[in-house]
Every structure is written in C-alpha cells, then in structure tokens.
Amino acid sequence: MGRHVMARKRRRRSPLALAAMIAPAAAFLAAGSGAAPLAQDVQPAVETETCCMEIVAAGVFGPATLHKSASTPEGEPLQTLAASHWRAADRAARTALPVGVAMESGLQVKTILAARAISAAFPEISNIGGVRPDALRWHPNGLAIDVMIPNYSSPEGIALGNEIVAFALKNAERFDLQDAIWRGVYFTPGGARAGGYGHYDHVHLTTKGGGYPTGSEVYLR
After folding, report:
1. Pfam families annotated for this entry (predicted)?
2. Residue 63, Cβ density class (10 Å: 0-12 exposed, 13-18 middle, ≥19 buried)
3. Which of 77, 97, 103, 128 could form a disulfide with 116 if both were Cys (CB 3.0 to 4.6 A apart)?
4. Band of the pLDDT at 110, cuts 50, 70, 90?
5. CA distances from 163 to 49, 92, 108, 135, 191 (A)
6. What is the 3-state secondary structure (H, E, C) of the chain?
C-alpha cells in the first residue's frame, strides 16, 4: 500500500505521556523463524483498565507482556509499545461501538471489531484499509486491516503506531488477533521478531476472522 500522509493533526501529548510511550523497554525479538519471546529481561506491562470491546459478552484477559530487545535491522532502536495509555470507555457503560473509518464490506466479525475499537480509541486515525486484492489471503478474505498512521515518520507518528500495536496486543484475545506488523517488526501475542517486514506507513493487523457477519452482530465496548 502506498504511503499516506494525513493532514489531520494528532493532539499534543504531555512530555510525561510521550516519555511513557517511547521509553526503551518494550519491543520484541525472537531468534530463527519462530516468534517466541526472549526468556530473559521480561518486564510485565503496566496494568490498566481496558474497555470491554467484544461482539458478545466474554471474559477479560490479563495484560500483554512486553519484552526488551535491541534494534531493527536498520540499527534503529525499537520503540516502546506502551501499555499505559488506553483511552478506555467506562466498562460499566457497555455501549455499542459505532461504525469506524474502515470500509467493513467483506470483513469478518473479529476484523470489524478490531477496526471499530481502534477507530473509537484513536480518533487521530482517519483511514483504515480492509478488503483488497492481494497475493496472500488475509486482505481478500476479510482477515486483515491496514491502520494508516498520519505523519508516520515523525516521532509522534511512530509513537501512535506503537500505541496501536500495544492496544491490539492488549486486546489480542478479544480480537482473536493473529499478528501485527509495524516498522519492520512482526508481532504476535506470544512474542515477535524483527526483520525485513516493512510496513512503515501503517500498522497491519490480522485476525482469525470469526466468520462473516449476518447483520445481527452488536459490537460492544
């Protein structure tokens, strides 16, 4: 997908909040072809209250575990995937998620849930790609979305992409998340590895689908 530069400005964050998102303590790296995390220097994510984003009532799972790493193949330090900045709705409210910025036609239910949840949590995002022709099955089968990051090469754009990846991993069980790709790193709920994975202007998210919607679904916060 081509590069997209959004005109819409991201809200300025306080230095403390930005530092929490960029602190060097939370990328993943695994050896070989597997996606298992490093065994040492495991740091638990900061526990925060997340909103209950689901299609039907489901249990809440624990926070993602973030792991230390070195750098990307380009020698660039991997940015923190902050787990402490959820713009969460009141869990007790149990309101329905509105349709977001993604075109939902052809998407499966878990992919729709992820797209709507990201639209609600990150109003800076104005473009989420969905179904499109591709040699791999993820996009054509409605299993993947591309969250386009405004000003993706700027410090704020990178921090926003990091936060979206962390948000997706935090909600991995609820979204039935298979993987995320951002800035050359391939993430899974169990770990990640750096390599030539591209995706510098958008966060790619793949779910396991959950089937195509019937029209009766209610996507809850």
Report:
1. VldE
2. middle
3. 97
4. very high
5. 15, 24, 24, 29, 16
6. CCCCCCCCCCCCCCHHHHHHHHCCCCCCCCCCCCCCCCCCCEEECCCCCCCCCECCCCCCCCCCEEECCCECCCCCECCCCCCCCCCCCCHHHCCECCCCCCCCCCCCHHHHHHHHHHHHHCCCCCCEECCCCCCCCCCCCCCEEEEECCCCCCHHHHHHHHHHHHHHHHCHHHHCEEEEEECCEEEECCEEEECCCCCCCEEEEEECCCCCCCCCCCCEC
Asked whether 203 and 129 are in contact (CB, 8 A), the reply is: no
Cα(192)–Cα(176) distance, rounded to whole angstroms?
17
Any domain includes 155: yes
Question: Of 202, 186, 216, whose CA–CA distance to 36 is shortest?
Answer: 186
User: Is residue 137, in this structure, part of any structural domain at all?
Assistant: yes
Does residue 196 sit within a domain?
yes
Tell me what pLDDT residue 33 has. Answer: 37
Q: Are 141 and 108 in contact (CB under 8 A)?
A: yes
Whole-angstrom Cα distance, residue 172 to residue 73?
Answer: 26
- What tokens appear for 121 in the block? 């949590």
Q: Letter for the amino acid at 180?
A: A
Q: What is the pLDDT of residue 83?
A: 36
Q: What tens digit of pLDDT does each residue of 65-91 get?
A: 333 333 344 444 444 444 333 344 344
Is 4 a member of any domain? no
Number of domains in the chain: 1
